[in-house]
Amino acid sequence: MSTSVAIVEDDPQFRAAFAAAVAAASDLTLAWSAVDGTDAIARLATNVPDVLLVDLGLPRTPGIEVIRHAAVTHLNCDILVVTVFGDERHVLESIEAGACGYLLKDAGPEDFVRHIRMIRAGGSPISPVIARQLLTRFQARPAEASGESTSAAPDPSLSERERSVLSYIAKGFTFEEIAGLLSVSRHTVTTYVKRIYRKLQVNSKTEAVYEGRRIGLVRD
What's the predicted TM-score (pTM) here? Predict the structure, then answer.
């Protein structure tokens, strides 16, 4: 089954390169492309792709607003940031808004095809320099073994709704019960769980609850 891809990019050269790479891949289909955030949000109302490639520096409506909109209204759409911004603020803001991956534009278009496949397979592609930056940030936290009283701050990458789902899972509720409590479908809950697994880098409910407790997202 073909994976549909939409591209939100104002630079014509990058937009054309991404579109050509998608067109050359037999398992990918270009749903549409937009040159600014306002156009992208309008297109999402009638045509939701499997994967949304979003630049951050967009005219009219910023890329971060496109991410927030897609993450809230289209839960089955995987969002992949492709940008020149590699600073911590942009990275964390994008992940918190709902992005599943973050890539810099220094890679070739063919690499983005590989990352699109990765994100649909449940991965969270991140450029190596970004991954190193995030690791350095978290390694800089005081070690628990130091004896100092430290309380882990909630992981900013989980949305409020994702934290609620994780909390219910920790309390032993089933997906069906969580769906009823949140007034959403079971499929929607499954999508939230999928995102939680990605962001916490775990593969099961047990691991998610353990990691949630470790970093302060879940409290007994």
Answer: 0.66
| CATH fold of 155-214 | Arc Repressor Mutant, subunit A (1.10.10)
CATH superfamily, region 3-135? Response regulator (3.40.50.2300)
Phi, psi dihedrals of residue 155, rounded to the nearest 5°: -65, 120
Nearest to 112 by CA among 181, 14, 37: 14
144, exposed or middle or buried, with CB in 10 Å at 0-12, 13-18, 19+?
Answer: exposed
Residues 159-218 have pLDDT tens digits of 888 888 998 988 888 888 898 888 888 888 888 888 888 788 777 788 788 888 888 887
Q: What is the DSSP-derived secondary structure letter of residue 36? A: S
Give me the phi and psi of 108, to 5 degrees please: -80, 160
- What confidence tens digit (pLDDT) does each residue in 130-139 have? 777 666 666 5
Give, in order, the Cα–Cα distances in Å from 36 to each of 14, 27, 54: 13, 26, 10
Residue 121: exposed, middle, or buried by beta-carbon count in 10 A (0-12, 13-18, 19+)?
A: exposed
As given in the structure block, the two tokens for residue 111 are 């690499």
The token duo for 149 is 């009283």
Domains of the chain by residue range: 3-135, 155-214
Annotate 64-110 with DSSP letters as a single string.
Answer: HHHHHHHHHH-TT-EEEEEES--SHHHHHHHHHHT-SEEEETTS-HH
Interatomic CA distance for residues 148 and 166, integer angstroms: 28
